Each structure stands twice: as C-alpha cells, then as structure tokens.
C-alpha cells in the first residue's frame, strides 16, 4: 500500500492484511480530524492515493460500519457517523455493564501489583490533566481499565468494548473539562480502595452507577460532545465553502 509523506511507513514489513492496514489508515484519518463526522468518505480518492483496489477498501469500510463508525448509503457513498447524545448514553450503559461483569469475574485475581499499576497510571493521568495533555490522558485511561480487563479470560468482551470506547474518545475534540476528568481519577482512587478492602459490591456499584453513568455526569457529557459537534459542523461548512 502506498502512503503519503505523513504516513507512518510505506516500506517497513507489515504482517497485517491489507484490509487491516486500510482500516487503521481510515481510523487514523478520523482520529486526526481529516475525516469528520457528517462527511462522506471519498473512496475513489483514497483508492488512488493509496494505490489499492476497491476490494480491501470496501472490506475495511464494512468493518467500520459494523463497529458504528460509518454508514454505507447505497448510491450515495460512505458517511462518517455523528455521535449523538443518545449514542453516548447507549455506549456508556453497554460498557458500564460489560466492565462491571468483568470486575465481578476477576475480583479475586487482583494482586498488589495490579493495584500498584493502576495507582501509577492514575497518578500519571492527573499529571496529564494538569499539563492539559489530553492525548496522553486518554491513553492512560484506557490502560488503567485494561489492567482489570486483561485479567479476564473472556477475550470477546474486550473485543466488544474497544470499538465502543474508540467511538467515545477517538474523534478529535477541544471541549476538555478538567473537573470531569479529575472526578474520573477520584473514582479510580475509590475503586482501588474498594479492591484493597475486598468489597466487590461497592466496586461494581461505583463502576456501573457512577463511573459509566450518563445521569451522574450528564452536564459534562452534553458540554463535551455537543461543544465538539458545533466545532465539527463549523469546520464541515468551512471545508464546503
């Protein structure tokens, strides 16, 4: 697959399938704001730019549709999906339920090393917030949750959760809310405290009823996502002008 000067590599050996490489390329374009929600993906242009046939590109697009990132519209093209508030609410409910299920299943597997790893990650998250380094913050947040998700033998759960989290976090945003993120870190601290005390019920209740609760943080959620949507709409209009 040919790539432009901004791409990571065009010559390094890559054992991933062409479909996987194209999928990652499209996801990167979304993450960097080059493919905005509400815009159509120009498949012919991408096919020419990357020097690929339509088949692996179409396969990558189908995967994106299955994960909720795009909608394939017959005779119209491929539309990058917007993330409505109801979508956010649905995703929070699903991820909260799945992660809570994992916590119950792996609770007896937590060791002091797992707690130490989570404490270190949470501390780094707080530092990233104060430095306004939200790219690092979100990566650290994913890593924090992965500490207990990786304890689960149910690999399908993590495979399901990842695309949902990507939909929540991966589109570029500018309306960061420090108070919300610091609350998130405080709940991490409470979560670790419950684990250390061996209180599974409180840990799960915190996770399901607060940490992933739409109602608990609705004012922040609406500000975060609606503010980003307004910025995206403005940029789409500018690109069309």
Keywords:
241 residues; mainly alpha; Arc Repressor Mutant, subunit A; Four Helix Bundle (Hemerythrin (Met), subunit A); three-stranded antiparallel sheet; 10 helices; 3 strands
What would you note in describing this structure?
It is built from ten helices and three strands. By secondary structure, the protein is mainly alpha-helical. The chain has a three-stranded antiparallel sheet with strand order 1-3-2, with helices on one face. Strand 2 and strand 3 form a beta hairpin. Helix 1 packs across helix 3, helix 4 packs antiparallel against helix 9 and helix 8 packs antiparallel against helix 9. It has two domains: 64 residues, Winged helix-like DNA-binding domain superfamily/Winged helix DNA-binding domain (Arc Repressor Mutant, subunit A), CATH 1.10.10.10; 148 residues, Four Helix Bundle (Hemerythrin (Met), subunit A), CATH 1.20.120. It is globular and about 55 Å long. About 3% of the residues have low confidence. The two termini are 32 Å apart. Helix content is 67%, strand content 4%.
């Amino acid at each position: 697959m040919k790539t432009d000067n901004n791409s990571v590599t065009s010559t390094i050996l890559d054992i991933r399938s062409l479909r996987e490489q194209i999928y990652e390329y499209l996801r990167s374009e979304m993450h960097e704001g080059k493919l905005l929600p509400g815009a159509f993906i120009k498949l012919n242009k991408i096919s020419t730019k990357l020097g690929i046939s339509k088949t692996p590109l179409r396969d990558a697009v189908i995967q994106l549709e299955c994960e909720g990132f795009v909608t394939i519209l017959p005779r119209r093209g491929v539309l990058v999906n917007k993330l409505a508030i109801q979508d956010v609410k649905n995703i929070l409910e699903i991820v909260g339920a799945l992660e809570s299920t994992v916590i119950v299943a792996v609770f007896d597997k937590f060791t002091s090393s797992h707690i130490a790893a989570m404490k270190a990650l949470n501390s780094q998250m707080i530092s990233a917030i104060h430095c306004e380094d939200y790219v690092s913050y979100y990566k650290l947040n994913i890593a924090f949750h992965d500490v207990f998700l990786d304890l689960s033998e149910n690999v399908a759960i993590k495979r399901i959760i990842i695309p949902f989290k990507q939909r929540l976090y991966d589109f570029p945003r500018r309306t960061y809310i420090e108070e919300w993120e610091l609350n998130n870190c405080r709940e991490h601290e409470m979560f670790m405290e419950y684990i250390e005390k061996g209180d599974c019920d409180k840990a799960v209740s915190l996770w399901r009823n607060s940490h992933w609760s739409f109602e608990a943080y609705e004012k922040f959620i609406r500000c975060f996502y609606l503010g980003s949507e307004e910025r995206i709409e403005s940029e789409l209009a500018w690109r069309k002008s």
